[in-house]
Amino acid sequence: MNRKFVNEESGADRNAPIGIFDSGLGGLTVFKAIKKLLPNENFVYLGDTARVPYGSKSRQTVQRFSEQICQFLLDIPVKAIVIACNTASSAALDYLESKVTVPIIGVIRPGVKALIQRGARMVGILGTSGTINSGTYLKALEAAGFSGETESQACPLFVPLVEEGWHNHVVTEQVARLYLQQMIMHSPDALILGCTHYPLLEPVLRRLLPKTFIIDSPAAVARDLATLLEEKALLRQSDAPGSTRFYITDLPQKFEELSRQFLGYELKNLEKLPIETLERYTEKHSC
């Protein structure tokens, strides 16, 4: 997979959509933040629900899935790509940066950047087991020059609780209290939510860690994207609201129902994208 793939429109049309992808639902928190900051932009969102979760897949597999999705988005074409998934940002961003000719960002560096700007000296990191075990955020903090203390905690039950609609439920608070025992004792200055589902748990987390500042990673991604588009002269010059197309690779009905929890409204007219369409990109360029 040494091929370099490009947006065939090359000159990058300001009116082209921004592509956003995730392994499923969590990336909607990132989409919501970007849409709020850039309401006049056009968007294409792809949730790869047929192959979720990415966290249990090998690095090479996540890179392959991400490459397929990027090629699909570039064929639309899009003018920029946001990897709205912590696992894919960790496993595939560096790999894709050397291949994609449009601006591309993930969710890890913007969150870390916001943390550094906050000036926190003791930091808590919450994430899925895969994200925490990978040490992704610790490496990103070190690369950004952070020299304070860190405390990481895997919270594998948070995602199913969010998708069950229990993001502000007494059971969720009990589970969170068990996960955060040490952090509650130490009260870190700031908290990084290393999963795009976790912003929905902020009411619970704020009750348990009232003195801790929670880094708003989706908002940080939105700000960094806006800056990048401005630097590249790619911001859409229109006062008209932008349009959005949503693609899903499986379970469109469940996605519609759960979207209300993430966005505050239920998505309609989802387009189901056959997984074979994505896999053809690997077949097409494997020889």
Short description:
The protein has 287 residues and is α/β, with parallel strands linked by helices. It has 13 helices and 10 strands.
Write a structural description.
The protein is an alpha/beta fold. The protein folds into two domains: 18-106 and 219-284, 3-Layer(aba) Sandwich (Rossmann fold), CATH 3.40.50; 109-217, Rossmann fold (3-Layer(aba) Sandwich). Helix content is 45%, strand content 15%. It has helices spanning 28-37, 59-74, 86-97, 108-118, 129-134, 136-143, 158-163, 170-179, 181-186, 202-208, 217-231, 252-263, 275-284; strands spanning 18-22, 43-47, 80-83, 104-105, 122-127, 149-154, 190-194, 213-214, 244-248, 271-272. Helix 1 crosses helix 11, helix 2 packs across helix 3 (86-97) and helix 4 (108-118) crosses helix 11 (217-231). It is globular, with a radius of gyration of 18 Å. It starts with 17 loop residues before the first strand and ends with a helix. Mean pLDDT is 91; it is low at 1-10.
